[in-house]
Amino acid sequence: MNQVWWSLQQFRHILKTCIAERDLLTGKSLHAIYIKSLLIPPSTYISNHFILLYSKCRRLSNARTAFDSTPLPNVFSYNAIVAAYAKESQPHVAHQLFDQIPQPDLVSYNTLISAYADRGDTVPALELFLGMRRMGLDIDAFTLSGAITASCDDKNLIVQLHSLAVSGGFDAYVSVNNTLVTCYSKTGHLAEAKKVFEAMGEIKDEVSWNSMIVAYGQHREGSKALALYQAMVRMEFKEDMFTLASVLTAFTSMEDFHGGLQFHARLIKMGFHQNPHVGSGLIDLYSKCSGGMLHCTKVFQEIPDPDLVLWNTMISGYSLFEEFSEEAVAYFRRLQRAGHRPDDCSFVCVISACSNLSSPLQGKQIHSLAIKSYIPTNRIAVNNALIAMYSKCGSLQDAMRIFDRMPEHNSVSLNSMIAGYAQHGRGMESLVLFEQMLAGNMGPTSITFISVLSACAHTGKVEEGKKYFSMMTERLGIKPEAGHYSCMIDLLGRTGKLEEAESLIETMPYSPGTIGWGSLLRACRTHGNIELAVKAANHCLQLDPSNAAPYVMLANMHASSGRWEEVAAIRKQMRDEGVKKKPGCSWIEVDKRIHVFVAEDHSHPMIKEIYVFWEEMLEKMKRAGYVPDVRWALIRDDGVGVREEEKERCLRHHSEKLAVAFGLLSTKDGMPILVIKNLRICGDCHNAIKLISAITRREITVRDCHRFHCFKDGQCSCGDFW
Q1: pLDDT value of position 121
Q2: Looking at residue 187, what DSSP letter applies?
Q3: 3-state DSSP call for residue 2?
Q4: Residue 112 pLDDT level (bands cut at 50, 70, 90)
Q5: DSSP 8-state code for residue 202
């Protein structure tokens, strides 16, 4: 009997050691012995420890098997398996198990509240918290920290919970104060975060300092963050991976590439350069400050065991650059092959990359994978990314469907949908949604107003645009940025108010840049004001001498007035300066392949069939009243004037027409077509595709560098106001 007792004691000791050291291999061997042994009787106590072991080793299926074989599950059993599902980002399953607990205790509630809070699921987390309060259950600092974290999108809730912390004496707990600092900062209230931090006095720990350093970094107060870090070092607080990652956030906020590079050298000396958490900070710094991903790749390759956060940061870094979006998707696939299960952040980053690729098919595949990966359909961040992706890929109906099915919206949801409507020429819907946003007291941001003012510009709503522009400062205290002024210049210019647009440029507190002057130049071309066009073009060229667009627009304006000497002078200046026009190209995705076309293309394997089809379509268009608009053939891509007899032929094979023709040839009748163009759509192509949409009864969407043109039944969503 003593031998059995001694063996049982040894067994328990070894099992506890496996849990402490996360020794999965030995733990599995013990589990096999436990199942087969006749000397060790079935025990809830031992089963609970196996659940704990598998949970800590992130082996959810094994943890569930151990739980299901527990003789008489107690509260500890349930708490352990609930925690296991919570760690694996499956709070809905954790909640189902929680509901089976006969008498859930404080640990049960804290585990589930924390699981929901970590995922940003505000409603279920707060429902649990309020349920505890109604039942008169005691709460502790962990409960309150979880509730505050869950409320991170709502300052009013944070203030209420802060008051509860003070009245209940929980403001003496460092963990509660640290959470308050983090959440006040995330809601944009740096002053409140600083007050909490300073009121902590001598109870501050490393997490407190890290939280405040991050808060300064988030609010682009990088110098204050670095000063705080130096004070922390002087006070001999221990620098851990969280501290160092926070300092990297500060360098990122200041876009201080060289300072970050020097700090990287310090990290190498300290031995932290192979730490995944610090590596994430380095990748974030280099992707946002170095203008490329070469440094990021080197950092990633030096880390022997990348965790999910590091993979996500790498995907996010690549998704910031349109030209690297395919690499972002490739890293997402590598993440899966490495055995990681993508989380919300993974999907948000890769969906953003699909937006840049303008690949609705690839975006839908990722959307399907998110559903199959048990990412709940009510996840706001993922749904917001999907709305933006479908909008940018020309699938506005899909974006609207997701938006309408969301159980709740935040400001990002509304911003994404407002922008989607504006991009697709649905200015009225965009403004209606904005008014609903105001009525619902969901504060618009500066990003919201970019979309709203853009919607006004693309629909010619001058008075509404002026009203919303004034509202920013007078009602909401939002300081207009250069982008907002550019939208107003565009609005005034499009509606022919050129003098007013020029006056706004001269009085705005920022340099209008090439975007502002370029908007005025395009308006001058539309309304035929050559004198102001020359002024706008000169400003554009002073700011960016290598940009060919001002030269070409001026040359076209002179050519349309028969001023060929001025055209020749501009062409000579372009040659002397070595300026070449960016070649126009259009592309379309068919059967998972991207097909690219340029004007007068001869490289595509189906080009002969495309030209034959186009000639047949051209005859149908002419019978329907199409007359080529030869004003768009005055200057070729190389800056050379087009002879009169060549004008119509020059227009015939523009890249967007070839892409549309290929799309019609290569897809089934009735299927919508999406074509992307790197430049602004040509006016003649715009007229032609309107007719094609009526003749073929197809929806054809062309996304140019400014907006979407959705052609259907001979009409365009822009209302020809573009």
Answers
A1: 76
A2: T
A3: helix
A4: confident
A5: G
pLDDT band of residue 637 (cuts 50, 70, 90) is very low
Q: Are 115 and 91 in contact (CB under 8 A)?
A: yes
3-state SS of 557-601 is HHHHCCCHHHHHHHHHHHHHHCCCCCCCEEEEEECCEEEEEECCC
Is residue 206 within 8 A of residue 240, CB to CB? The reply is yes
Q: What is the pLDDT of residue 630?
A: 77
Specify the pairing of strand 700-703 against strand 673-677. Answer: parallel
Residues 6+ apart with CB under 8 A from 180: 148, 158, 162, 165, 193, 196
The HSE-up count of residue 360 (CA atoms within 13 Å, CB side) is 21
Mean pLDDT for all residues in the chain: 87
Q: Which amino acid is at 376?
A: P
CA gap 671, 590 in Å, rounded:
11
44-70 CB burial, b ≥16 within 10 A, e <16: eebbbbbbbbbbbbebbebbbebbeeb
Q: Is the dihedral of CA 433, 434, 437, 439 positive or negative?
A: negative
> Rounded to the nearest 5°, which phi and psi values hold at 511?
-70, 130
Predicted structure pTM score: 0.73
Nearest CA-CA partner of 644 in 630, 625, 660: 630
Measured between alpha carbons, how far is 354 from 436 in angstroms, rounded to an integer?
A: 29
Neighbouring C-alpha atoms within 13 Å toward the C-beta of 492: 20
CB 679 within 8 A of CB 584: yes
CB burial of residue 530 (10 Å; 0-12, 13-18, 19+): middle
Q: What is residue 702's predicted lDDT score, i.e. its pLDDT?
A: 93
Alpha carbon dihedral 277, 283, 286, 289, in 10-degree steps, equals -80
Arithmetic mean of pLDDT, 28-52: 82
Judged by DSSP in three states, 235 sits in coil
